[in-house]
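Let's practice the habit of predicting before peeking. Look at the sequence and jot down your guess about where helices and strands might fall. Then scroll down.
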Amino acid sequence: MKKTHIMAETKQAPEAGDTGEHALVPEPLTPEQIEDLKVRASKADENWDRLLRTKADMDNYKKRAAREKEDAIRYANESLFKKLAPVLDNLDMAFASAAQNASGGVQSLQAGVTMIVQQLRQVLQEAGLEEVDAAVGKPFDPNWHEALTQQESDEVPEGHVLQQLRKGYKLRDRLLRPASVIVAKKPSA
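Done guessing? Here is the structure:
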């Protein structure tokens, strides 16, 4: 690209009463140079407008992304609650049925609640909730189990789960609550 000079060559012009020092006087610009300056000024204006629009677009994008993030956090469990609503409906119907059938209601209530618990477990499993495996005889794992106490046992090897007191849960790979267990130890002699 060819560089053009904004100002033409300058000359030293003597002034009236010149003491020997000469001032620099710019030569007038040619019509081509003036036209080049006008073109450059219009391009600069276009670039400035484009910069302002891009900055406004970026600000709007940031605001929209922040709003969408807030909404995603606020309504993150929406689908889970939609799946849990029928479980609550079934519990309400089971209790209403038990209240109407006071005589034979215990067995029907037990059967209904058993089905509702299965339905609830299925919904929670689909959402990623898993039970921590703390079955009797499993090795104690401090990453997933919480040892409340140790108890002597001949049936279960030392350092293994003797009894699960409370179930533990994890959400996919993240522990929500460790399983509370009693750990077996060797009987004292």
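How did you do? Strands lie at 10-13, 23-26, 129-131, 145-152, 161-166, 169-171, 174-177, 179-185.
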